[in-house]
User: Fold these one by one.
Assistant:
Number 1:
Amino acid sequence: MSAWWVIVNPNAGRDRNLTERVMAALTVRGIDHEIRESASQEAVTAIVAEGRDRGFDAFASVGGDGTANLVVNGLLSLDWASPPTLGILPAGSGSDFIRTFAIPDHVELAADHLLDESRSPVDVGVLSGSFGKRYFLNAANAGIAARTVVEANRLPSRLGTRRYLAGFWSALAKTEPDDVRVECEGKEIIEKAWNVVVANGQFFGGGMNVAPGAATGDGRFDVQVFAGPRREAPFVIRRVVKGTHLTHPAVRRITGRSVIVDVPETWLIEADGEILGTGSFTAEVVQDRLFFKI
């Protein structure tokens, strides 16, 4: 059984004893591990590099999707003889990537998944734009979904995943549809739209089934453009929650391994719940560089 290098975001969720809780969960299960707490986002990269230098090739991220995003960026910034393995022990307000694999949203129950050697290659996306280059694991958004992240982060953490839906209504009042162009392997969508999704996983936004047709190992993104007037957005978002929105006339969908997304320079861009910057970007699927612990 692999020894795990465990990176804890001590500010994730509302559990002030998170590190002790994780240590107890791994110890009682006999899982060999070492734990490091990340004092900041910048510290994660150094902690990942320390683990690699210590000979670890299995890394567990403890936190939400944002923490996992930082760990993935740290892992893929390094050279590996063979792909490392990522495991996730969910502890943040948003842990959506693991929903695609039906991993429990509970530290102790998720720890059971680290007990054996089963793992699966997982695609990763890489974004390039004015913000530089950034890897993402679950999904990237331009437009209202990125604005929703900002609004949700202003709300009390006690709301849990409900913060994202509440944040959407606040973001809706501040977002106007604008001209968008998306090109994906010879296919093109030109619309006056209010959001563009580039999805690897199926769920985000606090459990919304935004990309029910996405697969994390098929080498393709699930790309969606949400168009139409702003008054249509509330009707579409209600269907997004259950994953029934793909037949709505305001939603355009294409798939592919490379995407060009042209949006207004002022539009926010987010990936895995982290705001990266603004404006247009490209996205590429990266394969065979990471395993995920199922």
Note: The two ends are 14 Å apart (CA to CA).
Number 2:
Amino acid sequence: MSINFTLSEIAEKIGATVLGDENHLVSSLATLASAKNHQIAFLANAKYKSQLNNTNAGAVIVSPESTDAFTGNMLVMKNPYLGFALTAQLLDNTPKSAENIHSSAVIADCVHLGENVSIGANAVIETGVVLGNNVSIGANCFIGKEAIIGENTQLWSNVSIYHRVELGKSVLVQSNTVIGSDGFGYANEKGNWLKIPQLGTVIIGDNVEIGACTTIDRGALDNTEIHDGVIIDNQVQIAHNVIVGKHSALAGGSAIAGSTTLGSYCVLGGNVGVSGHLTITDKTTITADTMVIQSIKEPGLYSSGMPAMKNRDWLKNNVRINKLEQLNKQVKVLQKQVDALNKAN
């Protein structure tokens, strides 16, 4: 079911100014290239500015600097991408992960259910679980013993929440994610691996979003902690006793090894690997495919890895890399000769 808003209503919600017909109705979002008259588009990247000439959008969210490039209805604000995000929230028609409590859900007798809780088909809720108000549990989810799920939190289908895990308020967890599974803890005795029971848990703060097929391991002794406002992409691995500071962002495929602390307002690009027992300071950004093997004490932008190039160039460079040790020895010999000449003079 579509929801219609006038441009003046949207402008009030997102903090924009209307140029054009304030009463024009829109019901959804689209790109500049595909938008129709009942839709609203946005211009956040200057390279798409030429598309303003041909768009059929009923209105476009633009910055003040772009108003002279379009003659149609506009919502003007300093940050059009923020306007897009706020408008998307306003026009969001995503259904809840569950409606009511399905008859096939298995719920233990001593579970505490808040008001307006929804539980999907075949979900299992074990003893001692606390579900806050307006919690929505998707089909086939598993909530282990004594887990706590805060109000307004939503789990999509097939999510597994292990025993004693705590999720805060307004947390969103996408399908097939596992929170609270055992950390990778073993002791080696003469080549044999002895399992170390993982006795901690996972504590998730408020307003955290976790992508699909992500795994967050429980702590070995202390807890694994994900602080408020963190966003985690799909297929991310967070090992035992990791701490992720507030409002940090982890892109897909990233992995953080055990007992590492990632500060607040940090960003990990896709496929970043962080070794264990490190500390990454606040406001650190690490670009895609970087391998972090030492603690980072100063905020900033960090990178490693090799960008894509033609195969023949990569092969040549790889040969040169293999000769670095030989080259280093030659440089040291030459430096000694230069020092000797300087001393003689």
Note: The CA atoms of residues 281 and 298 lie 6 Å apart.
Number 3:
Amino acid sequence: MSTPSELQAGLLRNARWRPWEFAVWALAFALPAVTPSHALMINEIAIVALFAMSLDLILGYTGIVSLGHAAFFGFGAYVAALFAKHVMPDPTVGLLAAILASALLGAVASVTILRGTDLTRLMVTLGTALLLLELANKLDWLTGGADGLQGVVMGPVLGKFEFDLFGQTAAWYSISVAFVLFLVMRRIVHSPFGATLKAIRDNRLRAMAIGVPVISRLAVIYTIAGAVAGAAGALLAQTTGFASLDVLAFDRSADVMLMLVIGGVGWLYGGVAGAIVFKVLQDWLSAVTPQYWMFWIGLILVLLVLVGRERLLRPWTWFGGRSARKGAKA
């Protein structure tokens, strides 16, 4: 059994930044300037990557299965849009308001996932998102209903940077927020708190037996994940100037789950990688085959599940083990 000092050393070792991580974020901040024609797509990728990382906090690191994570995304979008329309147009203040409101929703909703099986959580989380969707539809005097919340005008970021039609300011704004929240999440998952989350994921009964406060840990991480998802939704509403029922739709929850399937769960960069691959494939396939792009994405997902992500990345393992490697060398 590892000693406390060895465990602490392991946490510190895992928390160190790798050189490739600096390169990834440097490239992310440079892309809107290098490829300004794709700034709007880069902005969208940054938003859905943040959304995917928030789901990975509860799915990959804690083992909480959810099909209603769009509830927090959509709630954050509507709060940010309503704040800009009726209170003040400052995007940073509106973002903070959306994060706090989504965190409160996450704290309330965390009660629903503390007990029951994975199937129960699937149904409860899905039901929560559907309830919010119907509520937003019925309160059309506030949310705009099926027509969406229109007339949302955002002020300049930090009072200096106006949102432009090409989306460069929006892209840098979303990437900056995603980076700051990524640092927070990275610190959480590589802390002793994060280690207890993994213990709960691996064996909840054993975690309870060694004294881990499972109930409070689940409530806290669900609240944090809700806040981060709300921030992603707020970014979407602020950078597009619009919020509609689509932000609460089941498709949002399904898409973000697919991103984690593609990128991998249990590491934050899986959400980033999955978001990039999913959005690029969606954009390319919808342009090539507008009617059948979902079929090809589904086929890729089936291959990932049947073959395995690691084997797809290592072609010499496609035909099995050492014999394939020997044949490749020959």
Note: Residues 173 and 295 are 33 Å apart (CA to CA).
Number 4:
Amino acid sequence: MSRLNKTPISLGEIAKLLGAELIGESTKTISGLSTLALAESCHLSFFANSKYLKALQSTSAGVVILEKKNLSHCPGDALVMEDPYWGYARVSKMFARPECKAGVHQLAVIDSTASIPSSASIGAGVIIEAGVVLGEQVVIGPGCVLGENVQLGDGCRLHANVTLYHGVRLGSSSVVHSGSVIGADGFGYAPHEGSWEKIEQLGAVVIGNGVEIGANTTVDRGALEDTLIGNGAIIDNQIQIGHNVVIGEGTAIAACTAIAGSTKIGRYCTIAGAVAIAGHIEIADKVHIRGRSLVSKSITEAGVYASGSGGVMKYQAWKKNAARFRKLNELVSRVVALEKKLD
């Protein structure tokens, strides 16, 4: 598969953007991106993983972004830089679909007290309630709902069918993908005589600059204080973030992770897929948590953490291991008793 651009881009222009050393003709142009294996002469590709060395050696790509140590394996033109994957990420923006045109669709419903600049793009079926303030060049996709007093910074983009409850605030250049709900009530109830009394969630959600939130993710509003997501955080699809959670800047969270209320996650952490994080704990800066881990207590030092009982295995072996695991505490007690006798 490849991504094509209507207007060819010269290698000289790309080299200047990346600060890369160009091995080839600066006037040569490319019109698309592709993998090493499928690339044609009109495509740019990149090499950042040694597993794809054979694909690099046989590629037909017009130019490849790679490190200097791999230059001898490249059969054609090259853009040489220290971090090819980062370079590819920057070039990919040149091939993104064009921005939506400014204007308000005739089927949008906008309260008269909302502040909408002429540079904003508002899609069909959008509902914007009282007191909403949009920054310049904001894009609101079809079917989005913005509750009272929502604020979006310059350059924000909401894809189709995003819901922002009242009081939610997004910094500049933040992106929320389709189906996400930001600012719904947190899970707050007080037990009383066999029933549950709802605790009204009076805080909001405040999201920093340059944050990206994936599809069908939910971020609950705070009970009293706000739920906070720091600048540059990236949040994947189908993630649950509970009320009063604080996520530090630059932290990355992969799909299907669930974070219970009032937990604080530090800066520049990476949390892999399907991690479960208990409430009312703290995680230090630069912590890396492996997939499917359960985090039930605070982590106070940077490092790599994991939990669980090993990888997948055949069912019969799993049954035997599970049966023995249930006896683990009894076995430990017997070992301790034997050690005492030996002493």
Note: The helical segments are 11-18, 53-57, 84-92, 315-325, 328-342.
